[in-house]
Amino acid sequence: MLHPALLRALGVMLCLSLCTACAWSRGTLGDDLKRDTVEAFQKGVTPRSEVIAKLGAPDRVVTAHGRDIFQYYHYDMKASSLILIIVNFSRFTIKSDDLYVFFDKRGLVDEVVFGKRTEGMEFRFWPFKD
Amino acid sequence: MRPRYIAIALTLVMVLVASGCGFVTFARVSVNNPLRVGDVAFITPGRTTFVTVVDRLGPPNELAELHDGIVATYYFLDAKYSRVNFGWFARFWLPVSPDVVLAGGGLGTDMFQVLFDRDWVAIDAAFAYHTGTPSFSPWPFRN
């Protein structure tokens, strides 16, 4: 009977011998939205010009009930592939960060809605798990 | 659906279809976390506010004004693709490696929309269309 450690080592070597390639890819769309920058906006104080100076022109402008809303977005994609001799596994994960800055009628920040879905996003190749 | 979203989805589907040269290939694409009925069950028309929705689901991917309110849209996608190349074994005795491929996949794409009134209180919520989560099945001849 083989020692368990030797058995594990043989298992790893077998897996490595079957592994012909691995691949990791990364892609982004839009500038990263930093939490520090967003948290610096103060309701009733920060003007529209300052938001534009810090984040640039918005990706979209929406008007709702007479108020302007600036939308900024950032997409992040992580892709990994495990290419074995017989079977290949690939997984692509894409998530978006969306920031909405609501302005009042004076052009000052009224509300900020921000969420970072991309935080904690990992490279995964196993496609059978959520 | 928004053009950038369609572009991302189509590009990845093309990548999936072109990927893999082994005997069996499994590939999956996820865009944002799929929302399920249970995830949005907390929304009560006439009571749930925009802030509550954002706290639970995160910011929407799109806001659009209607003449009597605002609609918030969440996009998500779950695509699965599997492929079996029976010609792969021929490489051991033939000078060329012919492809005999069976492949199949599906896009589980959906939009969830919440309609808010002028006071940012939800008045309706619904999935725009729901194709369900596809399964890994390389058999293309099924109904």
Nearest-angstrom radius of gyration of chain A? 23 Å
Element order, helices and strands of chain B?
HEHEEEE
Strand content of chain B: 35-45%
Mean pLDDT of chain B: 82
Q: Tell me how many strands of chain B there are.
A: 5
Briefly characterize the structure.
With 130 residues, chain A is of the alpha+beta class. Chain A has helices at 4-18, 35-39, 48-55, and strands spanning 19-29, 60-64, 67-84, 87-103, 109-116. Chain B is 17% helix and 38% strand.
Keyword list:
heterodimer; A: 130 residues; alpha+beta; five-stranded antiparallel β-sheet; 5 strands; 22% helix; B: 143 residues; 17% helix; 38% strand
Word description of this protein:
- The complex is a heterodimer of chains A (130) and B (143).
- Chain A is α+β, with helices and mostly antiparallel strands.
- Chain A is 22% helix and 45% strand.
- In chain A, strands 1, 2, 3, 4 and 5 form a 5-stranded antiparallel β-sheet that branches.
- In chain A, a hairpin with a 2-residue loop joins strand 3 (67-84) and strand 4.
- The mean pLDDT of chain A is 87.
- The radius of gyration of chain B is 21 Å and the shape is elongated.
- Chain B contains 2 helices and 5 strands, in the order H-E-H-E-E-E-E.
- The model of chain B has no long low-confidence stretch (mean pLDDT 82).
- The two termini of chain B are 27 Å apart.
- Chain B has one domain (24-128).
- In chain B, a hairpin with a 5-residue loop joins strand 4 and strand 5.
- Classes of the chains: A alpha+beta (130), B alpha+beta (143).
Helices and strands in order:
The complex is a heterodimer of chains A (130) and B (143).
Chain A: H1 4-18, E1 19-29, H2 35-39, H3 48-55, E2 60-64, E3 67-84, E4 87-103, E5 109-116
Antiparallel strand pairs in A: 1-3, 2-3, 3-4, 4-5
Chain B: H1 3-18, E1 24-31, H2 50-57, E2 62-66, E3 69-85, E4 101-116, E5 122-130
Antiparallel strand pairs in B: 1-3, 2-3, 3-4, 4-5
